[in-house]
Amino acid sequence: MKEKNPRPQEKRSELTCAEVRSLLFAYLDQEVEERIIYQIEQHRTTCPNCTKVMRSYRLVIEYLRRTEEEEVPEEIHQRLLRLID
User: Relative to the CA of 33, which of 26, 41, 43, 59 has its CA 20 to 30 Å away?
Assistant: First the structure.
């Protein structure tokens, strides 16, 4: 018996690991629809690998937010500007 073609993503209720990972930054920044949030959270309940990846992303984002911005020395700033032009 032949399997039917999978339904388009917007009608499916489950996301693949690749889909979840491609949406993680938007998810963590709360830039996705409620439907996507629900789908990602449902996926996490059954996928320890994506849960680990998400935890890692969160840790990196948290670390970067706590890291102080450093001033770029004027000489380097000027060199970068010349390279851009």
Answer: 59
Where in the sequence is the domain holding 51, given as residue range(s)?
1-59
The pLDDT assigned to 10 comes to 45
Which residue type occupies 66?
Answer: R
Our CA angle for 20, 6, 41, nearest 5°, is: 25
Q: How far apart are CA 29 and CA 65, in angstroms?
A: 13
Other beta carbons less than 10 A from residue 4's beta carbon: 6
Assess contact for 48 and 20: CB atoms under 8 A.
no
Task: Give the total number of structural domains in the chain.
Answer: 1
Q: Work out the number of other CB atoms within 10 angstroms of the CB of residue 9.
A: 12
